[in-house]
Model the fold of this input.
Amino acid sequence: MQSAELENAINAIQSIRTQGDLNILAQTWRDQQTFLATTIGRKLKKGDTIEWEDRNGNLVPGTILKLNKKTCEVVRPGGTPFGRTVTKIYNSMIVRKVKV
Done:
């Protein structure tokens, strides 16, 4: 189920007819992603347990190993130093901080 705001945005995008307007939209998209990432990143720190949404919409748990301005490195729970999987994600993909 899509929100009304998302449906309005999709309709507006579909009405664009020039490459120049699409370029402006792409820049606005990047600016909004940066805003979301930095806003979320300010609320987190190394060692926090989080849930993030992967590109398929699945919620994935993890612990922050490294936190940058726009991205962070996350390790899934239960991994050992020799078998853990570290994933670099955009901070805007973080759904919530999990209370431990």
